Amino acid sequence: MKQAKDIRDSYIRFFTERAHTFVKSSPVAPQDDPTLLFTNAGMNQFKSIFLGDNPKNLSRAVNSQKCMRVSGKHNDLEEVGVDHHHHTFFEMLGNWSFGDYYKKEAIKWAWELITDVWGLPKEKVYATVYTDDDDAYEIWNSETDIDPARIGRHGAEDNFWEMGETGPCGPCSEIHFDTGEGTCIYENDPNHTCGVNVEGCGRYVEIWNLVFMQYNRQKDGTLTELSAKHIDTGMGFERIVRVIQGVRSNYETDLFMPLIEKMEALSGKTYEFGEAGIPFRVIADHMRALVFSITDGVSPSNDGQGYVIRRILRRAYRYGRKLGFTEPFMHRLVPVVVSSMGEAFPEVAERADYVASVIEGEEARFDKTLETGLTRLEELAEAYRAAGKGVISGADVFLLYGTYGFPADLTALIAREYGLEADEEGFAEEMRKQKAHDRSLRAGGDDQGLSPDGWTILSHEGGTVFTGYDTARDTVQV
Ligand code: ATP
Ligand code: MG
Ligand code: MG
Ligand code: MG
User: Fold this and answer.
1) pTM
2) Which parts of the chain span the membrane according to its record (predicted)?
3) Interface ipTM above 0.90
């Protein structure tokens, strides 16, 4: 079986052989971009080049970028572990042309790499182009031997890439692979018939997006032409590894299997492909997110990037209960992440001990309140059900947060298991009230409203605590 690391290398080699400069991945937690909590696409670090600022005159680049999609416009958290191809942390392979080659080379090389070099069966590859992008459609026809019946035209939702409300954008062409399970055309195929739930159906997996950067979206919504045309591509590394290794899930690749096997050994439980495998998949996914973001300088905390990490850790820790773990165990998985990723990303190997100790400390902290919090949540759920109410109030969600350290999304997740929802809006309102109270105490020179463990301190600005990273803050996407 071709190993993941050889696949990563062969992508980079393919493009360096075509005069692309290898540029190291930027950190997964950007330190210098206030619009972005986490790097969510390979192009993030090249944003200013697209807009015309290219001091090093870079004309072609290639890399594998560390990405996280847990916030802002791209938030895949709810999909993770339920389906087999969305992760919180993942690598995005990418090649770029900055005012150099354009659609023809981008498409031709993409086809050559996947069908010639990697040998994917041509009859299983589908391409999409933007509705009126006749150029791209023609190039697919003339420069590749793809069956024209497998080129589709799609609207802006899938095939017009936008950086955000403003910024570089343009039509794109996506490549999908038919993994052959069930009979669904796309993930959200209205005629979905494969029998897996729609979210989990992954017969046609999107593997690569080729973006043709040619406009800049202005504040008033109009498009202006960029001074040059660029190529920006993003390929899901774990997905292509899955396809090349011929397994039915990203989790069955050598990127995740060692983690799952270690969990099996520690828990004595056996991994399954279906729903029963969700705890294994979520923990394996979240471990990588934790190791990479802590390595890149994020610490669990009560706001911003640190709070996203805390939520992820607590979510994974609670899934650990389902595998029978009753004490900190996640830190024991750090060496497994290091052994599969440490060569490509040496920073992960260098900081492994530190990362393990941060994770262990945070696990231990949460472990103290998890059991009582779960009991309290169960009681609440019973009471709500008995009263015929379907939604746990914002005040109760807030109580679980303040007293037991349950992030609102964790409460929502557990509530769903009882057939209930959690009022996250109402919770955000409680947080705002608490913050206002806190401010008035401080205005009076009295800090006593703040608890020493920090859980009642509202350190988020502007009342955007729980919606902040789900709304406007991240704006970049591929
Ligand atoms: P999807 O439709 O599957 O959510 P996307 O269209 O949001 O993917 P892009 O923004 O086009 O993804 O990103 C480029 C590539 O990155 C995708 O073609 C896919 O292979 C990969 N990718 C996107 N999101 C994830 C994720 N959460 N986990 C793993 N790979 C991803
Ligand atoms: Mg997506
Ligand atoms: Mg898509
Ligand atoms: Mg896409």
Assistant:
1) 0.88
2) none
3) yes
